[in-house]
Amino acid sequence: MLEDLHIASIVVTTIRNAPVLMFAALAGLFAERSGVVDIGLEGKILASAFASAAVAYATQNPWWGVVAAIAVSIAIAMAQAFVSITQKGNQLVAGIAINIAMSGLTFVIAQYFFQQGGRTPDLGDARFTDIVLPGAAALANIPFIGWLYTQVLGGQSILVYLAFLLLPVVHWVVYHSRFGLRLRACGENPHAADAAGVSVTKTRYMAMLVAGTLCSFSGSYLAIVQSGFFLRDMSAGAGYLALTALVFGNWRPLHTVLGCLMFAMFQAIQIQIEGVDLPVVGRIPGSLIQMIPYVVTVVVLAGLMAKSVAPKAIGQPFVKSR
């Protein structure tokens, strides 16, 4: 039944598509909860995807690719923090500048080193392999249970498990830790936080450090797990979809992840219906099918933007009272 309806394939594809959005959305959650608008998620995803693919290919080790992605993404996040927090620059402009710069810079560097039209070579064995759970072979032929154990719970890359394990960790950090309390205070009322002895600048820098680290996994997953290479603008708006999921989730970890899963599901459905003759409407052109996630994004923003309550101090540079 599952195979006939392609539900099984949609579920598995959703799980495998979601981490790119989840890592980026949780990264944006830390930045924006502290009061910094992180439009630059798209640029950090691209930069970390290129760094991870290039280094993984050079070393033939995906872990070194992840390390390189973390270093590059943190460097960009710290530059963004310097402009937005220390220099009190326009946060939207800084984020857009990062996106534009990384879109062009990654292509130029990839072309310079690899001479393949801005693309890195295929990684081959320098990719993360899927984890096979114990007893998978014995359970594989059992209806539903075999599919659930071998393809949903098992058969995933280590970064998929990391993405879903991050959810309870992020929830605890944001709502049950001292850092989370300070983070939320700086995003809601930085002057009150400053009066209580909290360093708003330090807290926002720490939030951007966490955001840079989490965003690097999004790029790493895109290059090392999903594609096996880097291609120009391969993020295809994932950073903006992650921001939409953040709005959808009202800047709360669980609801944000649910938004990511929703977008990942529509991407999975897009793959399923492409090239298929549907009842009444027949075969839908591929270009229209590829629009589905973005049309959903517009609908979500139009319907929920007015209802979402962003951190009150988001986008506002903090100027210490005298």
Automatic annotation (TrEMBL):
Recorded topology in the membrane: Multi-pass membrane protein
Location in the cell: Cell membrane
Alphabetical list of Pfam families matching this protein: BPD_transp_2
Name of the protein: ABC transporter permease
Organism whose genome encodes this protein: Massilia terrae
TM annotation in the entry: 6-29, 64-85, 92-114, 158-175, 205-224, 256-273, 288-306
Keywords for the protein's UniProt record, in alphabetical order: Cell membrane, Membrane, Transmembrane, Transmembrane helix
Coiled coil: none
